[in-house]
Structures are given as C-alpha cells and as structure tokens.
Amino acid sequence: MFPAIPGPLVKGMPTGHSAPVIAGYLASAEKFVWPDADGKERGTLIEPLYPGTVKAAKKDTEFYNLMALCDVIRTGKVREIKMAEELLRKKLDN
What we know:
By secondary structure, this protein is of the alpha+beta class. It has one domain. Strands 1, 2 and 3 form a three-stranded mixed β-sheet that branches. The chain is built from four helices and three strands. The longest helix has 16 residues, at 78-93. Helix 2 (53-59) crosses helix 3 and helix 3 runs antiparallel to helix 4. 45% of the residues lie in helices and 17% in strands.
C-alpha cells in the first residue's frame, strides 16, 4: 500500500510511529513528520498519502490518528505494523 520513501529532515507534524496515537506503544529515536511550515517537530519527511492530509488532520483529530496509523503500515517493521493494524481495527469498529 503506497510505500513511503523517507526524505530529508524537515519541520512538520508527527506521523507514523511518532504520532501521539501510537507513540506510547512504540519507542524510537527517529521521528517521522509530514511537512508543515507551522510544525513544531523536526524529523524525517514522510509525504502524506494526499496533498490535503496535513490541513485536514489539523482540523480533525480522529482523521489525524487514522492517517498516522496508515503511515505506520507504510513505514514500519512487522511489530509496528501489527500494533497499527490492531489500533486501526479498534478505531474502525467503534
């Protein structure tokens, strides 16, 4: 599913394993971010799936969580992917 190619270090909005929705479950020194001029975090660039993702994620926390979990699937290792899949199932079942 749309593999992510990590880019340079940029300021942005945390995504993937760095997003608040999953950060408490996983530990990593590396941070992934979507590019955002207003972002407070610095990390490795991950291009969002759609151009309007960052703008929409700022307005809707649940959308942000779902998209960040999708980025775990795009960037993660087996253990991280399984955790993201489990969290996605719980969120979508509600």
